[in-house]
Amino acid sequence: MKRVLLLAAMCLGFSAPVLADLALATSKNCMACHNVERKVLGPAFKDIAAKYKGDAGAADMLANKIRKGGAGVWGPVPMPANTQVSEAEAKKLATWILVTPQ
Ligand code: HEC
């Protein structure tokens, strides 16, 4: 399964560090509710990147939300807290999501 995901990511033309972060997001269960390209239960990562484009504080704000959960920004469905994610991992994931190509 991981292999298939990695292959799919490569086909999309992602570079190696981006792949590493996709693997992190997959291992932290983010991809159960999110997809890079399209909305699943949560918003597409490319839509999140578009929404916060040019917002210098977005990475810290989103890292905090990733760990504590959030609601009311994208629709009626809340994101539960992701307590399995460390502060450093949350910052890495937020930074990665914000550079998703649109
Ligand atoms: C149970 C499903 C679920 C899981 C698991 C999940 N999310 Fe979410 N996520 C959501 C939903 C639903 C929203 C929209 C919440 C809202 O409208 O404020 C969201 C919103 C977000 C946002 C945007 C927040 C904002 O305020 O704009 C980011 C960034 C995000 N998720 C990242 C992650 C990351 C990284 C992980 C893995 C650690 C993760 N999510 C795991 C469902 C999930």
TrEMBL record:
Database matches in PROSITE patterns: CYTC
Keyword annotations from UniProtKB, A to Z: Electron transport, Heme, Iron, Metal-binding, Signal, Transport
Cleavable signal peptide: 1-20
InterPro entries the UniProt entry points to: Cyt_c-like_dom, Cyt_c-like_dom_sf, Cyt_c_ID
Domain Cytochrome c: 16-101
Keyword Thylakoid: no
Pfam family, one: Cytochrom_C
Keyword Metal-binding: yes
Record's protein name: Cytochrome c
